[in-house]
């Protein structure tokens, strides 16, 4: 690799894409095209970056499998930042295997972290944990150690293990500062804000309290019967019964929990579960059936007793009742929560991450656009969705060690 390419690669690794472009802007050989693609990605021009990387991959000869694999990894990171979660994971796995065979430990580790981040985004935490398990980041450069710690923190946060998440984020911050890459430091700081930003609300005995992630962890580990409106489940003493596929039962359980220690009227239950404005005998009959199903589902968690005008939730003796709700009850809060990361998502990626149909997600996006809470970017199949950016906080992309200097 000549000295110009080496200098450009070092510039990119240190977070200086403009300096790298000054060296290689007029070159069209394969290594220069790849580095120009990475530079354009760091500057935010993802479409141009993808085009340059594809040209570079084609330009490398059949015996340059290592260089092509590095291009695949760079394209995979662009896909991740673009929230193109349907992008084939097989290509990234194959590239990682090629890098490992050729002894390119740094780029192989980078490919592994990209795969882990994708798995975390689509909710496959067990798979992400298995991919991370036993991996030693100590020999890696500081930037990749930071990426490793961010992956560890991401899994811990999804598991609601705030103490190991804080340790991992502290390690990530030290590694990012040692790397001297401003965008990486900003990414770590942004991730750390999740520990100090209200993540949910606790509704209990007629009052609401904002909760940090540590508070959510403490609540779910307490002796309380928790009606979890974030995951549509009921938890008690480490046991959980999922109601995500039974929305009527969950709506009844939440209404009863919000009314605790009093009972909920039949009118309130019918309005929440069936959206019935004017209940008739058929509604009341259906309510009795659904209450019977809920009573059976919650056996061992709580009893449900009839009252003169409705029903009341009766937890085991000595247990309190709390509802764990999202920070906001506004429509499509889960879609807004995903878009809050500042990146541009496709509707198919949102559907994949939410476990919903693309049609349902598209309806939600259309409603959010109408109230100016989401903005579309691009047209047709290239259309992406993002939250309106805050002034002074541009989105950034970091491609660490995609093409090393050696």
Low-confidence stretches: 389-406
CATH superfamily of the largest domain: Tetratricopeptide repeat domain
Mean pLDDT: 85
The number of helical runs is 18
Structural class: alpha+beta
Secondary-structure element series: HHHHHHHHHHHEEHEEEHEHHEEEHHHEE
Question: Strand order within the widest sheet?
Answer: 2-1-9-3-4-5
> How much is the radius of gyration in Å?
25 Å
Form type: elongated
Percent range for helical residues?
40-55%
Distance between the first and last residues' Cα: 8 Å
Give the CATH architecture of the largest domain. Answer: Alpha Horseshoe
Largest sheet: 6 strands, mixed
Q: What is the CATH topology descriptor of the largest domain?
A: Serine Threonine Protein Phosphatase 5, Tetratricopeptide repeat
Tell me the β content. 5-15%
What is the CATH top level name of the largest domain?
Answer: Mainly Alpha
Q: How many E strands?
A: 11
Domain module count:
3
